Amino acid sequence: MENVMDKVRKDPLFWIFLVFLCYPFLPYLGNFVSLGTELLLWFIFTLSFNLCLGQTGLPSFGHGAFYGLGSYAAAISFLRFYGEDSFFLPLITAIAIGALFGAMLGWMIREKRGVYFAMLTVVFTQVVFGICWRWDAVTGGEAGLSGIDRVSILGLNMKDPHTYYYFCFVVFLLCAILIRTLAKSCFGMSLQAVRQNYIRAQYLGYNTGKYKFAVFTISSAFAGLAGGMYCMLTQSAFADILDWSKSGDVVMATLLGGGTVSFYGPIVGSIIFILFKELLSALWDHWALIYGLLFVVVLSLFPTGLMGIIINRSRGKKSKKGLLPTPAKQGGGAEEQVEQTN
């Protein structure tokens, strides 16, 4: 029992869950419950995106499309299909639409790599943005969709910001555990093989196209869920969340936090991005300029992001204390070390 408790205490997710469990009661920050809810939704969004970028090495620079499609799917289904007494059905629809469009795009670009893969995702985002911006009869065009109401479920008043916050907290908890379990599974290890050496993975018998298609679909489903819950938070859906800049935001947040080297990087980056956006935008209208310069400076000095700094420092301390084995003790010769590096 003590060993289990020690593992729980050493798990970073435990402390993240604990902090956000108490978030509404924190001094000052507790006054901004909607900000905390947005943070939880961004955690789901960035963790889903990192399945593509950090886990598989897929530069999905148009991932905001699935976030936006999930938001519109929840809004349209609520207003025109399920009625005003629905809550879970619009969210399920958001997941389904995110997964459907993710599967469609993922199947078309599953064999593409590098800049071609990235540009095709950006093009897809802009096409979806143009459709939602112009299709007044369905999406409301420039005016968007409003009038979405959070109804009571199981005796809980979802109109109350604190109640909705804890609903989003529970969803985030489940999604984080599920995504981490997926990342550590055999499937997740196969995705890492695709990321580390695409050609070698093919020679080893991996169907890299199918793996890319599968992870793209799963990631899009989670992004659609985050978008649907964001629709319920703002009680509206607008085309601006489909713009390419939204996809750029999730890329910056993930890289800044160190998503390519740590599972928790997207969470760290989301906290920095959202809080900086709120603080800087209150001080200066052109806050994005400061954030962009900060992003360039940090990644120029620390390419692995903030979590990369923490990991490297912790490894340095362990090596000084003799807790890490030296290359000679690992038993690998020069050829084996080169093989592992490649």
UniProtKB/TrEMBL annotation:
Which stretches does the entry tag as region Disordered?
Answer: 318-342
Leader peptide range in chain numbering: none
Q: Which UniProt keywords apply?
A: Cell membrane, Membrane, Transmembrane, Transmembrane helix
Q: Name one GO cellular component term.
A: plasma membrane
| InterPro entries reported for this sequence | ABC_transp_permease, LivM-like
Q: Does the keyword Cell membrane apply?
A: yes
Name the domain of life this protein comes from.
Bacteria
> Taking the first listed entry, what is the main subcellular location of this protein, grouped into a coarse class?
membrane
The UniProt entry, under CDD domains, shows: TM_PBP1_LivM_like
Compartments where found: Cell membrane
GO terms assigned for molecular function: branched-chain amino acid transmembrane transporter activity
Q: Pfam families under this entry?
A: BPD_transp_2
Transmembrane intervals? 12-33, 39-58, 65-82, 88-108, 115-136, 164-183, 250-276, 288-311
Q: Is this entry keyworded Transmembrane?
A: yes
What membrane topology does this protein have? Multi-pass membrane protein
This one is known as: Branched-chain amino acid ABC transporter permease
